[in-house]
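Whiteboard transcription, Tuesday session. T.W. wrote the structure tokens on the left side:
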């Protein structure tokens, strides 16, 4: 199983404990300041990418000395650094992609990271990508029947409609539903698991699934 961990440059205060992920046989990709962040945590990225406009000359020199594969892009471009990293990750044919450092801080960066999977060219990434921070576990889902396991450290679960959603059904949750339609932008938040697993299904649309803790 090929797992790729992408570290981007969001606030360090939002990062989860990376120890459990360091024990996995994963490929680490550092995006811009995220590459420096990995080095500071004793994680040597397999590759570093970005325009590196958020690091200074000394940090970039140190990065190039320690990481064999550093790919620099111009600051003026049509893609975000995270999108460039995700494109590279998809080329490796992974089974799972986790993204860290993608939340908090600048709201435009957060929105770009949450909505990039809605772009047609990233459609194949939807079932692969998990966004993880200190307080949240986030995934995008396409239509179908989905079984989800409760994460012990998380209390709440939310379903946010990224497009119009048809026939949403929730089972195994405190607030169940049975084939209800919702328009884009509906936030079904502060739900909770009633057991260790839940099921949800819908017939069309896109849903952003989030497990959270305070």
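and on the right, the sequence the group agreed on:
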């Amino acid at each position: 199983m090929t797992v790729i961990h992408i570290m981007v440059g969001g606030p360090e205060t939002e990062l989860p404990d990376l120890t459990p992920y360091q024990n996995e046989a994963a490929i680490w990709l550092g995006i811009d300041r995220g590459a420096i962040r990995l080095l500071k945590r004793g994680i040597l990225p397999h590759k570093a990418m970005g325009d590196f406009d958020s690091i200074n000359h000394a940090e970039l020199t140190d990065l190039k000395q320690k990481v064999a594969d550093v790919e620099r892009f111009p600051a003026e471009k049509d893609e975000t650094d995270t999108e460039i990293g995700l494109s590279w990750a998809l080329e490796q044919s992974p089974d799972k992609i986790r993204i860290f450092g993608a939340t908090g801080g600048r709201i435009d960066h957060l929105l770009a990271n949450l909505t990039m999977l809605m772009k047609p060219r990233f459609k194949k990434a939807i079932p692969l990508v998990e966004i993880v921070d200190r307080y949240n576990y986030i995934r995008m889902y396409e239509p179908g029947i989905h079984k989800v396991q409760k994460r012990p450290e998380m209390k709440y679960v939310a379903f946010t409609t990224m497009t119009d959603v048809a026939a949403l059904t929730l089972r195994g949750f405190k607030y169940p539903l049975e084939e209800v339609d919702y328009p884009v932008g509906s936030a079904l938040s502060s739900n909770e698991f009633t057991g260790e697993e839940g099921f949800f299904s819908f017939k069309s649309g896109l849903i952003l699934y989030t497990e959270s803790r305070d």
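Someone added at the bottom: Residues 51 and 74 are 5 Å apart (CA to CA).
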